[in-house]
């Protein structure tokens, strides 16, 4: 199998940006599909990257854009539901359609983003539908007889199941950094929930390393960082890193659900009941980072001072660009 052209779905987002950058550095020709090309302007100048506007939920349009690709990376997902975008439609149903489109288009390789502890017995719709989508994707690895594509290749699939992902531009630690700066007290839902955060660059490198590694064909991989933290410990770490002293008040289950209910009415959803249901299961791995990728995972403490304190040269540059409206 020789892979040269990679099509990335969801490539303009937080995780996608890191993956696309690493694919570009590794010499792949990359096509990024996005609803709004303007959102991916940070990728347009990369030498081997072509950004194309496409509604990936439109099967006909998606098939046209995927045609000619050797590999597809699916990062499409949502954290909160809306009337126009539900977990069931995007996480549960769409991956099966994507597999069929890949097979019909002669794609050799499909990498799929799932979620840690996604299962059919999970307590949240997010994890339940992530499990349903992953099941559809991984069916390709369970065929008793190889199903060959029109060009003589079998579609080879790999699924990734990360814990919460952190890094510059994340929607997790950056959210807590904003809250500790704005609020005199932090009322924290589910303070004892446990996480094993994984750095976005480690996740991105695992995707890239797996593309042509036959040992990863047909397998799912849990991805976690080197340390486990409670949610309270993570928020305290963010406060300490940003130099802000705040009292953190942990809420019991009843108050946590009341807080989530109130937040669901906000114009921007910070937390929902479904988020709390997901936190009933600790987001930690049963083993270390998969050795097949040759990566020593990076701890939170080694990375967050660079992007939470805004003291690096890059963050200063980004701040100036923001003020200039660029």
Topology order in helix (H) and strand (E) letters: EHEHEHEHEHEEHEEEHEEHEHHHH
Number of helices: 12
Q: Which stretches are low in confidence, meaning pLDDT under 50 for 5 or more residues running?
A: 319-326
Strand order within the widest sheet? 3-2-1-4-5-6-11
Give Rg in angstroms.
20 Å
Helix content: 25-40%
Instruction: Give the total of domains.
Output: 2
Q: Quickly give the structural class.
A: alpha/beta
Looking at the structure, the CATH topology of the largest domain is Rossmann fold
Largest sheet at a glance? 7 strands, parallel
N-C termini distance: 41 Å
Mean pLDDT: 91
Strand content: 15-25%
CATH architecture descriptor name of the largest domain: 3-Layer(aba) Sandwich
**Please, what is the CATH homologous superfamily of the largest domain?**
NAD(P)-binding Rossmann-like Domain
- The counted number of beta strands is 13
Shape: globular
Walk me through the structure:
- The chain has 326 residues and is of the alpha/beta class.
- It folds into two domains: 5-167 and 198-223, 3-Layer(aba) Sandwich (Rossmann fold), CATH 3.40.50; 173-194 and 227-285 and 299-323.
- 38% of the residues lie in helices and 16% in strands.
- The protein has twelve helices and 13 strands.
- It has helices spanning 14-25, 41-44, 59-66, 87-105, 125-138, 173-182, 200-210, 231-242, 253-263, 273-278, 304-308, 313-323, and strands at residues 5-9, 29-34, 49-53, 71-74, 109-113, 156-162, 165-166, 185-188, 194-195, 198-199, 219-223, 229-230, 247-250.
- Strands 3-2-1-4-5-6-11 form a seven-stranded parallel β-sheet, with helices on both faces.
- Strand 5 (109-113), helix 5 (125-138) and strand 6 form a beta-alpha-beta unit.
- Helix 4 (87-105) runs parallel beside helix 5 (125-138) and helix 6 (173-182) packs across helix 8.
- It is globular and about 55 Å long.
- Mean pLDDT is 91; it is low at 319-326.
């Amino acid at each position: 199998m020789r892979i040269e052209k990679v099509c990335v779905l969801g490539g303009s987002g937080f995780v996608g940006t890191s993956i696309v950058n690493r694919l570009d550095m590794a010499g792949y020709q990359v096509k990024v599909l996005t609803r709004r090309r303007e959102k991916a302007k940070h990728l347009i100048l990369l030498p081997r990257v072509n950004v194309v506007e496409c509604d990936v939920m439109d099967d006909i349009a998606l098939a046209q854009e995927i045609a000619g690709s050797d590999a597809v990376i699916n990062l499409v997902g949502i954290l909160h539901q809306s009337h126009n975008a539900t977990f069931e439609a995007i996480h549960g149903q769409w991956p099966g359609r994507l597999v069929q489109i890949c097979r019909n288009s002669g794609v050799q390789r499909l990498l799929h983003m799932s979620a840690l502890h996604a299962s059919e017995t999970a307590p949240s719709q997010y994890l339940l539908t992530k499990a349903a989508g992953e099941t559809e994707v991984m069916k390709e690895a369970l065929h008793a007889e190889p199903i060959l594509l029109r060009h003589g290749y079998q579609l080879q699939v790999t699924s990734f199941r990360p814990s919460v992902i952190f890094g510059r531009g994340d929607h997790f630690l950056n959210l807590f950094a904003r809250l500790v700066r704005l609020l005199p007290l932090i009322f924290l839902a589910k303070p004892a929930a446990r996480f094993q955060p994984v750095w976005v660059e480690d996740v991105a490198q695992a995707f890239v390393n797996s593309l042509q590694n036959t040992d990863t064909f047909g397998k799912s991989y849990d991805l976690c960082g080197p340390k486990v933290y409670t949610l309270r410990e993570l928020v305290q770490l963010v406060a300490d890193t940003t130099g802000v002293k705040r009292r953190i008040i942990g809420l019991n289950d009843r108050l946590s659900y009341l807080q989530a209910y109130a937040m669901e009415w906000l114009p921007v959803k910070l937390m929902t009941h479904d988020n709390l249901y997901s936190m009933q299961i600790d987001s930690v791995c049963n083993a270390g980072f998969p050795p097949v990728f040759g990566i020593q995972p990076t701890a939170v403490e080694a990375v967050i001072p660079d992007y939470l304190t805004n003291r690096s040269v890059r963050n200063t540059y980004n701040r100036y660009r923001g003020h200039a409206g660029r």
